[in-house]
Amino acid sequence: MKIGELAKRSGQTQSRIRFYERIGLLKLVDRRANGYRAYPPEALVVLNLIDTAQNAGFSLDEIRRMVPSDLGEWKHEGLLDALRAKVAEITTLEGRLAQSKAQIAGLIAEIEAKPGDITCKDNARRVMARMLVETAERS
Description:
mainly alpha; Multidrug-efflux Transporter Regulator, Chain: A, Domain 2; two-stranded antiparallel ribbon; 2 strands
């Protein structure tokens, strides 16, 4: 198929497909004598894999290392290692996000606990003083 059809079927732009070729992610292309690109049906599979992997958080470099130039040459263990590493990375990120969320929720609660007899400016000082104490206690 030609690049226009591949773009339409994959939902990618032609320039994106050319970019993937240029960086070595899409190697399934033949150049015809007239200069046109010709793609086998497997190119659509590769583009879908790239899209799925990017949506899962993989960088283009990670995808390049995972996706073989010939789909018949998948390295089972290498693929599983990469997927497990990404799950571990996501788990670490989830932990950091949960910690950040808890800190922000605590800050919101502290600000909302403003005593009625103080100004917003004094409340800000109160909250910052408490934050300094908590930071010093953690250190």
